[in-house]
Task: structure prediction
Amino acid sequence: MKENIFPAIKITFIALLFFSGIYTLIVLGIAQFVPNKGEGTVIKENGKTYYSNVGQKFTDDKYFWSRPSAVDYNAASAGASNKGPTNPEYLAQVQARIDTFLKHNPGVKKEDIPSDLVTASGSGLDPHISVQAADIQIDRIAKIRGIAAANIKQLVLSNTERPLLGFLGTERINVLKLNLALDNLK
Amino acid sequence: MKQRTSNKLFQSELVKEALKDSFTKLNPAKMFRNPVMFTVWIGTLVMIGVCIWIAAGEQSQGNLTYNIIVTAVLFVTLLFANFAEAIAEARGKAQANSLRKTREETPAKLLQQVGEVFMNEIKIIPSSYLKKGDVFICEAGDIIPSDGEIIEGLATIDESAITGESAPVIREAGGDKSSVTGGTKVLSDKIKVKVTTEQGESFLDKMIALVEGASRQKTPNEIALTILLAGFTLVFIIVTVTLKPFGDYAQTPITIAAFISLFVCLIPTTIGGLLSAIGIAGMDRALRANVITKSGKAVETAGDIDVLLLDKTGTITIGNRKATNFYPAHGVNEAHFIKSVVLSSLADETPEGKSIIELAAIDINNFKLNRPKFIKFTAETRSSGIDVDNTRIRKGAADAIRQLCEKNGNAFPDETGKIVKGISSNGGTPLVVSENEKVIGVIELQDIIKPGIQERFQRLRKMGIKTVMVTGDNPLTAKYIAEKAGVDDFIAEAKPEDKMNYIRKEQKEGRLVAMMGDGTNDAPALAQADVGVAMNSGTQAAKEAGNMVDLDNDPTKLIEVVEIGKQLLMTRGTLTTFSIANDVAKYFAIVPALFITSIPALQALNIMKLHSPQSAILSAVIFNAIIIPLLIPLALKGVAYKPIGASALLRRNLFIYGVGGVIVPFIGIKLIDVLVALFI
Amino acid sequence: MNTEIAGIFIMFILVMAFAIPLGKYIGKVYSNEKTWADGLFNPIDKIFYKLGGVNPLKEMNWKQHLLALLTMNLVWFLFSMFVLMNMSWLPLNPDNNPSMSADLAFNTTISFISNTNLQHYSGETAMSYFGQLTVMLFQFISAGCGMAMAAFVFFAMKEKTTDKLGNYYFFFIRSCTRILLPLALIAAILFAFNGVPMTFKGKDTITSLQGDTVQVSRGPVAGFVAIKQLGTNGGGFFGPNSAHPLENPSYFTNIIQTIYILLIPVALIFTMGYILKRRKLAWVIFGVMLTGFLLLLIPTIINEMNGNMAITKMGITQPMGSMEGKEVRFGSGASAYWVVNTTCTSNGSVNAMHDSLTPLSGMFAMLGMMVNSLFGGVGVGFLNFYIFIILAVFISGLMVGRTPEFLGKKIEAREMKIAMIIALLHPLLILTGTAISSYLYAHNPTAYASWLSNPGYHGFSEMLYEYTSSSANNGSGFGGLGNNVPFWNISCGIVMLLARYLPIIGPVAIAGILANKKYIPESAGTLKTDTGTFGLMVFAVIVIVAALSFFPALALGPIAEHFSIH
Result:
């Protein structure tokens, strides 16, 4: 025991210095070369700063809605609903979201609503929606903003992020960027 | 293999005895030895309690008849397992008894003894009164009353009672063939025999005790397997016990009968019930091959053997070498040479010596010898011969004679050397003969390799066993025969300590070695070997040193013993696999049955479409019970060993017992369910 | 091909492409052979040896290895308890987060030193940066511990009849400095350049486009995430772990993280092949693990991509699959792939919420942890697999008519006893834990109502999952379980503790005992362990011992839930 305890203590503290200290400092140092110095990717628009990766709440009819969030897009306490797939309370909540969506988007048929629009994301901060989720909101936004649906469709297309290298993963739309572009579309 | 008793697995008297034993084995002290079946035993007791509880008016546990049936099936499961052990014991005992019977109560002609001196007075007493150290006399026609060692005389003996071999054998005092076995019959001559074992302590007695269970100890593999099975049992105890609160959460009441049925079905009762039967059957199979084992462990170890030391004579070659040619040296008269050769072999009682006289075809009785002095063969001189009329005739291995001659300043002729080499390289054995330390010629001895022996070695090689031929021949001859017979290695010009050294060397490298021997000088090697099989005809020392005794004195028996050992392990392994593989089907029978009433969605798990929860549970426990007696024949006969290489064997057994073990219960449980459904 | 499926293929192919050479490199590191990085690392290691006062060349037997490991872990335990319970006044706490309660600190400490990283707290609100850096240390060194023990077992398997089996400190320090550190650095830098924050600044306050005021948590995330994936730790910086857009911002970072989860567990198999010079055995083991892995993976992907049956019944189309608890940037395919990766390897990080998985996917996640050796945690995954090898060797050895032997060493009663205890332990801990909690809940549902966020079968699954994850030292959770209460903190802590150290002690003891035994050379009668047939045998043992024991429990949880909507 004795021959092990002192090495154990000493090595633990050297390791603390090394892996928590030096390792972190190296990464921190290198992060200084990253745009915005490792404080997160931001978009600066009209004097305001937004974190491009952190989803925002959009419930206003004039914006593309973001996904439902279990934490109401609170980026200081992110989280998910953690509802089980067959939980009746949860299914009722999904039903309510469907109903709300249909009320705000009268022309939309229920079977066209993609699941990402009625389910909460894992982080509660999902910055993206699917292309289909954007498409079915075009008519509503066109009507409110009085812009031709085709123009908005064009905007959606130009804001669609392609799969990585064109063939890996999903196609998606960053809601914040799309809505910023929407505001700039005069 | 000589089968003297009926090979029928279930003789009615044995079954009767075994049935009785099945009940006496319910004694908890005995059940405790087998942890798997002991838990079933407890389960049965609990179920009896449950039945009483229901009879007293409890409502929550299902109806009484169903519970009684479950209890009965569990009880029968126990009986089946006990029966398996009992029938194996009964068979072993019957086999041993039939051997013993032959030697019971034969009259013995005891030689009266006063102090240390034997009188010439004979008293007839029953054989069972013979004590160790007593001396008795046997004459032509007598049955030998006890195991012993001949201390005087020579006799032909019919050992067919023990070995089944009808050809009589010769046993004589001194040397390696001095041992006689009780129950065999003297055909000619008269011998004095000293009793070597106390009554009740002969190998056969020990074997019977071993089979009967009193002194049966678990072998190392059996212990490890028991741990594995106990481990599985514990896992399933956890699985079953925790199911109670799970059921509480799911608001699913589960009856005690269902809990115990699930548990009993999941634990490896099949192998648990058959385990000791398999072990006993292994010893029994050895006994049927006329091999007495001194412990179960020896049989098990035989399966692990890596190296087999085999004596050339009798194992690889038929009997003994025969003289086939005389080559007198240059300038030596052939008749003189033959006469010298015969003289040198007069006292040579070895088969080779006799064959020389045979080949010479001279009437020995014409010889008038003047105070002949016979020189016996010793391991040091490695030659034998005779001193007569100032002539010293010696015959022996080429290098022994060369040494002898050269020491005395006489050259070893080149021409002789050539002949010697020529004979050796043709597999013959040259014996060089010298007269007054001068070479006078060479005798050629030839070996005849047993037909079919190559195939056996091939088989051994596939089993992964290295065969080593032990011979007194010179290396050239040995090499020739080794190649011809197909053994992997040989020890030429073997002295007793060579065997010992070879065994030690192999063991140091981690291999297990088996050997067979009969002589006293084999005893240390027999003791050193992991499996030492002593021939029954061998000396007492050899028999004590080995851990098996072969009643047939058959040198090829080792091969059989190895296969018996392998069979023993394989039977355990395959039945374990089968037993555990069965669980898959049992889960699918019982788990849905437990929950279907309160969670109808789980009907989807009832892939066998069993009739009802109760019928499902009953079918599973019934299947679980009857699979035990159905597998008894396999447990007793053993799983056939096929020398096809370990991987192929595993593939084969995994397919038959693993895949079979998954499929069979699905079919079995379904069939039983169809029957049970008729009554529920 | 579907771009989601293509992404999964690429991720696995990349793992193989990196793991095989990495395995060889690790083999060289442990064998003290020359590598390209010696010039850099020799001086670093020397600092550890010298200041630590250890002689890295002193050979140890298995008991000495274990003693050194356990002593070190005890020091970590005390150190971590101190930090977590005193964070409020220790430095690097810009958000003024509080210290932990004793039971939470106990749970968190064991969780991190045992390489589990079950988090009954949410990083943003319950941890100071000093606390995060401390637990990050454990992500390095607890992984190093597991790898050191795997290295020990490799050498014990290789050696013939000796009890001199390398030096613990040598294996441990080399694992940390030469394997974990450089790989973590590479990933951390990639993350930092791809949107993962690396800063010591506290929360930022912004106004959203819609006009809401929002606080955004940040921190030294990039460095943290790199080692969390590499060491199969899985402890997240933020509560939602790698689902958080700052912890895992894009499909690209997701690919790197997913590769890192599997990287060392796969590489170590090839390390074994390298050290033992038995490449075929390595491929057989890899094959068995891959088979099990695929059997869990394929149905999970299908289930998730098909979506939640209950939502389909409501008339919603699910072209993206089941999206509750998932992020759009990953999609259901890559999320399902992650689910199986993280549970098979005892990593436990998540990029989608396991509580919201479709029932059968939840079951496959649990099965991955119940088996706990399909690749498994760094080092320890192999140790668990080793137990299954021993059991399979024993049964199949008997089946070919020989006393069972593994790599020339006879397996006898003593080894079987240890192997069985370890094989027993996992079902014992999981089922007993779940049984106690089920019992409490069933008999007083109102008192424990806060435990379960979902009713019925799914609630049962939440409890089963928590203990499974604890016992597998995995650390992922069905997040709905209200687990930051003394009952769960303490019971899971105990489970993690036992499930970490006993399964290290057992295999190390067996390997040590076997190494000391007489070596039996191979013959034609020897069962070869590097064949497909033997692989099949190991697989069968895993299915029957590890998976089937949980069948009744799974039937009451995910299976019942699944059939209730089908």
Observations:
- Helices of chain A lie at 2-31, 88-104, 131-135, 138-145, 149-159, 175-184.
- Residues 54-183 of chain A form one domain.
